[in-house]
């Protein structure tokens, strides 16, 4: 797994936890965390797809 995708997934998971905690405390700041989680999940998806495309372009030899 590409390093940037792994970092993005980590930040996404932390943002989801922060959103749950914010909403549990009655704070609407959780909306910002949800948006950040959406952004970082899209970044992770992008980096995974880009790495897959690069592996396919290189071919089986290398």
UniProtKB/TrEMBL annotation:
Keyword Transmembrane helix in annotation: yes
Transmembrane region(s): 28-48
Annotated keywords: Membrane, Transmembrane, Transmembrane helix
Protein's name in the database: Uncharacterized protein
Protein's organism: Streptomyces lunaelactis
